[in-house]
Design a protein that fits this description.
- It is a single chain.
- The protein is an all-alpha fold.
- The chain is 76% helix and 0% strand.
- Helix 4 packs antiparallel against helix 5 and helix 5 runs antiparallel to helix 6.
- The model has no long low-confidence stretch (mean pLDDT 93).
Length: 119
């Protein structure tokens, strides 16, 4: 959103989350890497399943929840997709609107089903 570099985002995030366990930090770093390294692929998957929505028109919270969810589908295929979707929905309920919760659920469910066909 703020047009920061990947390194600036990482630095700012960890400066605000000091004391995070090594296990959580490792997972977060891995997920962030997948999301940033594969952003074009992730965005294409999202747009392909978000009927009539372009990435730049989506609310920032929704767009980034979708990106994180799809990144986890791609980077951690052993994690049950329902768990990934549920976690995204919990965050959407806290930081977004009811319509956004439904939107995030629908898009992630559709992407998950499509990725399941590709496996």
């Amino acid at each position: 959103m703020g047009k920061q570099t990947v390194d600036q985002v990482r630095h700012t995030f960890w400066a605000e989350h000091e004391g995070t366990s090594d296990e959580i930090r490792g997972f977060a770093e891995d997920l962030f890497r997948v999301a940033t390294d594969r952003v074009a692929e992730i965005d294409k998957l999202i747009e392909g399943h978000a009927d009539h929505w372009r990435m730049e028109r989506m609310a920032a919270v929704d767009r980034n929840l979708l990106r994180a969810g799809v990144a986890e589908f791609l980077g951690y295929p052993e994690t049950p997709r329902a768990v990934v979707i549920n976690e995204a929905l919990e965050i959407a309920r806290k930081f977004s609107s009811l319509e956004s919760v439904q939107f995030v659920n629908g898009v992630l469910d559709s992407v998950a089903k499509d990725l399941g066909k590709m496996a």
